[in-house]
TrEMBL record:
Keyword Manganese assigned: no
Membrane topology: Multi-pass membrane protein
Protein's UniProt name: Sodium-dependent transporter
Organism of derivation: Halalkalibacter kiskunsagensis
Keyword DNA repair assigned: no
Lineage: Bacteria, Bacillati, Bacillota, Bacilli, Bacillales
Transmembrane stretches, start-end: 12-30, 42-64, 91-118, 138-160, 172-190, 214-237, 249-277, 297-320, 341-364, 384-402, 423-450
Keywords of this entry: Membrane, Transmembrane, Transmembrane helix, Transport
NCBIfam families, per database record: Na_transp
Compartments in which it is found: Membrane
Length: 455
């Protein structure tokens, strides 16, 4: 028998969806991209893009997901039959698959570092030694693959149990724990001598440093951090009852995401500046720089272990959503197939993720457009596929689904008026696509070329 699952509670959905949004994007990626992209200017753009572009799109994905009550591919088929719009769902699912293939690699690094911390191997090293340890660890093919496999194993075991017993139950434990641990770490970080310089770096924008690349990174980060453009939120919202207030739920998720992003910056940059470390360390910022910061604090390793644990929680809740969107497509609500397909998909993700896993070791010399395979997949998904998926979704929602149907779905569970609806609708129809197109054209140099023609 085919029955579509539902979340057990409204809070369970919000925590699970927030967990999908608040993952490596907020904790691993945002701080290092901010560190290499001007700090405050990048963070301000990220905030604006999240609120002005991300929120309307999140509401849009919620609407079509709940309206169709199906997986991401079937959703587009139901709402736009006999058309090619289902390709939006298929491309989104493929993007989720690619994200998880390199995402699981980072999850494996976290697990390996936790093992190193518990065995005492992270005690009393210099920043250079931490960097060397991390480099040696991810360059070791056996270690890196075991870490990736362990992360995927945890993910598969939870998702195989289903929406209520697996994802929702785990998220209800992990997300509140993450918030508590993060606030504790931020308080400790802000008490360091010279911490104010790190706060200034994160919150005071230097507009002279803005360029098209930073704008594109901020746009990609806004969509990456909210899991938009890859059909994840379409899948999650398909499990919602009609009593769920969609605008309120989306607002809660956006606020939590921005709050965690802010906490991540405030936990990391004050310590980096306090101890005179490199703020533009890139993807290794968490693993090579943070241990050096924590090691110089009283009970530093205990704090670092706590940070790694919340880092792992965040990574897992995001991984749950990505693999769930894949499982939903293949099971088509036939629950007896869930375990089998979850294990099959998890295995395939592991195999496809092997080149990313070995990118800093035996495949370090293999480059695509000057990037190792891991960085190439990350850039392709985050800065190309996600924004383009967001563009397609915004056009689908506002041009293909009728306004009466959108208004009807939005009103179920909420009491939004026509003013909110019209503001949301036109923001999604015009503001989101225009911003995405302009940023892309600027990154390609087209905007500057057009400007030069008329100057």
């Amino acid at each position: 028998m085919s029955t579509h699952e539902q979340w057990k509670s409204k809070m369970g959905f919000i925590l699970a969806a927030a967990g999908s949004a608040i993952g490596l994007g907020a904790i691993w990626k945002l701080p290092y991209v901010a560190g290499t992209s001007g700090g405050g200017a990048f963070f301000l753009l990220f905030l604006l893009f999240t609120v002005l572009l991300g929120y309307p799109l999140l509401v849009g994905e919620f609407i079509i997901g709940r309206r169709a009550q199906s997986n991401a591919v079937t959703t587009y088929k139901k709402l736009a039959p006999n058309s090619l719009w289902h390709l939006t769902g298929r491309v989104g699912i493929f993007a989720s698959f690619l994200v998880l293939s390199f995402y699981s690699v980072i999850g494996g690094w976290i697990i390996l570092y936790l093992v190193q911390a518990f065995t005492g191997n992270l005690q009393g090293l210099s920043q250079e030694q931490y960097g060397q340890l991390f480099g040696d660890m991810i360059a070791n093919p056996a270690l890196a693959l075991v870490g990736q496999l362990s992360f995927l194993l945890i993910t598969v075991l939870v998702v195989a149990k289903g929406v209520q017993k697996g994802i929702e139950k785990a998220s209800k434990i992990m997300m509140p724990t993450l918030f508590v641990l993060f606030i504790f770490l931020v308080i400790r970080s802000l008490r360091l001598e010279g911490a104010i310089e790190g706060v200034r770096f994160l919150l005071v924008p230097k507009f002279s440093e803005l360029n098209s690349d930073i704008m594109l990174f901020a746009l990609g980060q806004a969509f990456f951090a909210l899991s938009l453009g890859v059909s994840v939120m379409v899948t999650y919202s398909s499990y919602l009852p009609k009593t769920q207030n969609l605008p309120k739920a989306a607002g809660s998720i956006v606020v939590m995401n921005l709050f965690i992003a802010l906490l991540a910056g405030l936990a990391i940059f004050p310590g980096v500046f306090s101890y005179g470390l490199e703020v533009d360390a890139g993807p290794t910022l968490i693993f090579a720089v943070l241990p050096a910061v924590f090691s110089q604090m009283p009970f530093g390793m205990a704090f670092f272990v706590a940070f790694l644990l919340l880092f792992l929680f965040a990574a897992l809740t995001s991984a749950f959503s990505m693999i769930e969107s894949l499982v939903a497509v293949f099971t088509k609500d036939e629950h007896n197939k869930r375990k089998r397909f979850t294990w099959m998909i998890g295995t395939l993700v592991f195999l496809v993720g092997i080149p990313s896993c070995l990118s800093y070791g035996v495949l370090a010399e293999f480059e695509i457009f000057g990037m190792v395979f891991f960085d190439f997949v990350d850039l392709t998904v985050s800065n190309v596929m996600m924004p383009l998926g967001a563009l397609a979704t915004s056009l689908f929602v506002t041009f293909k689904v009728s306004k009466p149907d959108l208004f009807d779905e939005l009103q179920q569970g909420s009491r939004v008026g026509k003013l909110f609806f019209q503001s949301w609708f036109y923001a999604l129809r015009f503001l989101t696509p225009t911003a995405i197109i302009i940023v892309f054209l600027d990154a390609l140099g087209v905007v500057g070329w057009i400007g030069a023609m008329f100057s």
